[in-house]
Amino acid sequence: MKKKKSIQDFYGMKEKGEQVTYITSYDFPTATFAEKAGIDMILVGDSLGMCVYGYEGTMPVTMNQMIVHSEAVRRGAPNTFVVGDMPFLSYQTMDEAAVENAGRFFKEARVDAVKLEGGVRVASRIKAIVDAGMLVMGHIGLTPQSSSQLGGFKAQGRTLESAKAQIEDALAVQEAGAALILLEAIPPEVSGYIRDLLTIPVLSIGAGPHCDGQLLIVSDMLGIFEAFTPKFVKRYAEVAKVCTEALTEYVKDVRNRTFPEPKNIYPMIPEELTKFKEWAAAEKKAKEMKPPK
Ligand code: KIV
Q: CA distances (Å), 118 to each of 87, 122, 141, in order?
């Protein structure tokens, strides 16, 4: 059986230069695939708003949705480190709300850590959750929950000024007590600098190769989500194509009556079939002999 990695294991991996493998998952089946594949860490991301619910962004996602999906992922991957993603307005208002909502992830879905977006401006939220005894992953760079302030889903840290702001945010996240940090859509020179500066593991989604591990969104890398594919994604499968082809074939088979086949039915017990045929024939005859009303 796979041994679940702990936060200490991730610190050890950073020390030894070993890469952490990290993927999103929103449901039981993909969580089982991830665990079987030996993935180190799963994020139940609020990207499920787009990938599962078909929303335009992550803003409408609720705590209850996140909890239901995190529970399913935990059932599918009992031996993998699971991170619950705190949705919009579950932590932005005040420290107490952040602690209560983070606590729900741990109590109801038995996650190992929670992730929240932002640097300097959420430092007190991170500290409050950590002080309550929970592990936190920070998330800076392109932070989808504040994408309207960033002018859209745009890479960050591409100018000296912006790079310095990312570094300041990364330090604030570490100083607030976060155990891990995720950098999204940041140039590799800047993410590599942050990786060397921080003592906590620094993970990347679209932040280049110089980090302590890589995250991809499962729906992007498996080719499930087709609306758009960010530049940093590598496609490992074309699941949407395979599913659409299979469903098209099924529609054809049903219309042509080539499904179901004899192997897809439940036959009657032979002696019972003889009796059934005799009974049906008698019933039919009796009906024919009945005078019309
Ligand atoms: O929700 C999510 O999947 C995320 C990633 C984009 C990092 O937060």
A: 12, 6, 8
- Residue 278 inside a domain? The answer is no
Give the residue, by CA position, lying nearest to ligand 1 atom 3. 45
Q: Distance (Å, rounded) from C-alpha 52 to C-alpha 89?
A: 20
CA distances from 5 to 69, 80, 138 (A): 21, 7, 19
> Of 72, 103, 71, 73, whose CA–CA distance to 86 is shortest?
103
State how many domains the chain has.
Answer: 1
- Cβ neighbour number for residue 189 with a 10 Å cutoff: 11
CB-based pocket (< 6 A), ligand 1: 24, 43, 45-47, 85, 144, 182, 184, 205, 217
252 inside domain: no
Beta strand extents in 86-165 (DSSP E only): 113-117, 136-141
Residues with a known catalytic role = 184
pLDDT in tens, 130-166: 999 999 999 999 999 998 899 888 999 999 999 999 9
Could you tell me which residues are beta bridge partners of residue 200?
A: none
DSSP 93-114: S-HHHHHHHHHHHHHHH--SEE
Does the predicted TM-score (pTM) go above 0.90?
Answer: yes
Beta bridge partners of 184: 141, 205
User: At 171, is the secondary structure helix, strand, or coil?
Assistant: helix
Q: What is the CATH number of the domain that holds 80?
A: 3.20.20.60
Q: Which atom of ligand 1 is nearest to the CA of 215?
A: 7
Mean pLDDT (the chain, rounded): 97
Which amino acid appears at position 268 of this protein? Answer: M
Q: Which domain holds residue 225?
A: 7-243
**CA-CA distance, 202 to 205, in Å (whole number)?**
10
